[in-house]
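Case study: Iron(3+)-hydroxamate import ATP-binding protein FhuC.
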Amino acid sequence: MTSLNLTNLAWTPLGQGRCHHQFQLREASLRVAPGEFVGLIGPNGSGKTSLLRCSYRFSRPDQGEVRLDHYNVWKQTPRWCAQRIAVVLQEFPDAFGLTVEEVVAMGRTPHKGLFDGDSAADRSIARQALESVGLLGFEAHAFATLSGGEKQRVILARALAQQPQLLILDEPTNHLDPRYQLELLQRVKRLGIGTLASIHDLNLAAAFCDRLYVIDHGRIVASGTPAEVLTRELLQQVFGVQALVDQHPLSGYPRITWITQP
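Here is what the predicted structure looks like once written out:
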């Protein structure tokens, strides 16, 4: 079982002055324990995607450390990281005519040699990944012809085909209708591997996350269980909107109702 630790991360986009705060990370620290589902929440532009990019070795932090267990991610090779960390992003890749089967099979690439073809084991793993997201039978479909929700599930299947030790999700439910939002997060939860996900819908975050980190203007400003974090006062402070926070009548986790002004 694998843990992720981010310690005092600082990062500023290339060409952005240090006096500007948009997208800048400052002293950001968080932990994902083995098997834990951790949510990252905050307003648009608060630094969620920037922090995730530092975590999966896309944007090198200016300072601080990203450790997978005892290994500094930024001292390892991209291949080493791809064998252990799978990422599901908001944007869909350009598939250039690839079928669903071919997109999912790309998840096996980090585990193969440069000129290796797909083995029977690779094909079996890819098939199991497609089955786990409810798309078995779609193998021959062109990825480009799928709906947004179907594409998102194919990308999750590709991530699962990597057989990762850690999963990083950037707004994974954006393109999904309510049924598939719930199904996707339930599938991720059942994997039992460490997961760090930025989640826009706070009610979904409350329902599925073991712990939450709140990021605002590049700083982690709160962390804890959903009940500890999702308070009326914090939501007003960070999101600038009043909310009613009560308990879900069936499951007991926090339920947020935004209050609109007439």
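For the exam, be able to explain this: The chain has a mean pLDDT of 91.
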